[in-house]
Amino acid sequence: METIKILIVDDHPVVREGIGAMLKREPDFKIIGEASNGVEAVDRALELIPDIVLMDLRMPEMDGVEAIERIKAQRPDIKFIILTTYSDDEYIFKGIAAGARAYLLKDAPREELFKAIRAVSRGESLIQPVVASKVLDKLAELSRKTPAMDTLSDREIEVLQLMAKGVSNKDIADQLSITQSTVKTHITSIFQKLNVTTRTEAVTTALKKGIIKL
């Protein structure tokens, strides 16, 4: 049986001790160290090279997300499981974006934690159902609110390009041989697709996304 080396990171000593005592009962788990904040976590992880880091999120000196990012930058082979009391969307997405392969709440059954550690060790991912539902809801919301940039038509991109040059609606209509009413329709559509409300915002967003160039 292959041993999984684990580093526990949490700013509460009682929590670290409790998690450690629970994991030590499993024959394939080996606790190789602890850390009480993000700074310590980075130092200990780079020193001990664990297979898995159980990472809390809210901690003094450096939070868990930043700690994950710093460790990942130097040791991309180390895997992370977030173990926290926070199920807010902001924490979930920041943690996953930083590179965590699993996201569990501290009230999860111990069997679920064991399962997550073994799954992540194998290169898999695991997210609690209550957290996964939030992820799916957020993705659905983003898909509704942020249309794909490639939904802009060729004509709308032409209008945007002229807007970026400061060309008026009348002159855009003349240059493209369309009516001013059609220009306004295109601009309204552009605003909706880019989720903006002004010409300046539309041009700025389009430039940032590489849709148009000056």
How does this structure look, described?
It is built from ten helices and six strands, in the order E-H-E-H-E-H-E-H-E-H-E-H-H-H-H-H. With 214 residues, the chain is α/β, with parallel strands linked by helices. The chain folds into two domains: 139 residues, Response regulator (Rossmann fold); 60 residues, Winged helix-like DNA-binding domain superfamily/Winged helix DNA-binding domain (Arc Repressor Mutant, subunit A). Strands 2-1-3-4-5-6 form a six-stranded parallel sheet, with helices on both faces. Helix 1 links the parallel strand 1 and strand 2. It is elongated. It starts with a strand and ends in a 6-residue tail after the last helix. The mean pLDDT is 89.
Total of DSSP H or I helical runs spanning 4+ residues: 10
Total beta strand runs: 6
Kindly identify the CATH topology of the largest domain: Rossmann fold
**Number of separate domains:** 2
SSE layout and pairing:
Blueprint: E1 4-9, H1 13-23, E2 29-35, H2 38-48, E3 52-55, H3 64-74, E4 79-84, H4 89-98, E5 102-105, H5 110-121, E6 126-127, H6 129-145, H7 154-164, H8 169-176, H9 180-194, H10 199-208
Parallel strand pairs: 1-2, 1-3, 3-4, 4-5, 5-6
Helix pairs in contact: 2-3, 7-9, 7-10, 8-9, 9-10
